[in-house]
Records
---
Amino acid sequence: MKQLQIVDNDLASYLKLSPDERKRFTYYTFDNKQEEYWNVFGLHYLSQTPSFLVDVRLMYIDQDARDWSNFVAERDSPGYVTFNPGTFPSVVAFFEMVLNKEMLVHDESITHFSLMSREELLQFHYPQEIVEAAVGNYYRYLPEKGVQDSEKISLICLPGWSSPHRVNQVASLWFITLSSQQLGNLQFDLVDDVDGLGTIRFNQRALEELISLLRQRIKLMEVC
């Protein structure tokens, strides 16, 4: 977690983070002095006791996009963050910090995430020419009733690591929450049309399971 820092007011203003959203979300970014792009993590606790409920937001803010005169980060940023193998453990540590509770779930008891097949990805308008590379990384999120708007569908794309492993290899974690209108649009592209869709709501059990999936990716990364 030491590589992530809270976004201060000056940086928030520079990145054009919405003042209204900043009243709800606490934002974090990597402490790497990167000036061409920023990986931003947003956190908004809806409740912690007796029931745990939290919104987590991912945003990738590119310098060229930020320079647009009408740019609003929460609306115009795609919902993913990037990292290399050295910083990925800090991403996992962020989600562990969000939970801030002892994990009760084990790797074999994943019920809130379903690995998506090639056919399912095509149904979600994933580009056919690159769908094969996505199989094994995309999961559909299956929240418990009442956790998230029933009219929305969320997908998570976990980072994929190629072999041979290289220390500077860049991967990404995607959050995508779609409306029924977007799903009904045959022109919608699951890769290119995802600006402003990077927020997912979790209860404790679902977040525990996500952390388990992310930890599995660390193990895969170590053997690549």
---
Amino acid sequence: MKRILLTVLGPMCLVGASVFALIWWERGAPPGFLPTPHDVSIQDITRNHRGVRVEGTAHYGLRIVQTTAEVSWYLYPLFEPGDTMGREIKVLVRSTVQPEPLLGFEDLVIEGFARPPGRLIDASITTGLREYGYTFVDDYVLVEPFNN
């Protein structure tokens, strides 16, 4: 009987622990908790950061919205504070909070998760931003605010 329980529960526990560890590693904190945000500048942020506090100027000129069945995500580039002429994207913000419709630029301090864009940012988004005159650095970072 013990052998059967060990045979059944052992792999289940191993898979559960692996999933828990993978989520912890990916988010920088255990599931259900937020990582400690670290102050980082736009130029210094990397894909290896997890919790960040970044200050910059958001460009809302091109209103990009990703819509799923549950939520709408608003995407916009974030540049160095006061930079309204920048066109090379190092940080792209993905938030559920809709920007004010009348704003073109806004100075923000964002606390959130820094991660590689991966499959969250598809070709239509990058193409739309490129058509609007923006370019991407090779290792640009996606930041999702904690307040989502």
---
Amino acid sequence: MGSVAMGIGGSHHFEGYNISEIAHCLYCDKCGSFRIGKRPTLQMLVGIAIAVLITNAVSYSMDKYGAWLA
């Protein structure tokens, strides 16, 4: 991974100091792409599905039996 300064966005004067905005973008050294991301794995998707099911079960039980957690 590498970082590239893409340019100066602007310059401001704040309490006696000049502040410049610079955009730094990450890129992949292997492919040269700026689109860096992580693909979801099966383990991640199963974890999200379990979290959704637990949240729905708690929400249903709170509606049916009252707010027993509060």
---
Amino acid sequence: MVDDDLAMMDADAYENQLKPWLGVRRFAWADEHSRPGPRGIRCVPRRLHEAFVNRANQRAITDEEERALNLPGDEPDWHQRDVYSRGKRES
């Protein structure tokens, strides 16, 4: 991925907000396609960052956003995810 395709994101927000929003399997994809930035920053795919910022208080990424971003995997519908459970694995 070219640097122009990446956006800077606070590392804490990346770990504690983006991860539950995406769900475990989608977050693994995001982790593979992002990289560490300067201290406290994570460089993430720009389209993913924009979808996250514009989420309008949704609990999770919508199915339409997933398709638009071509994210892989088979997550439950956005409104059926248990996005705030730490350590719980999605099956």
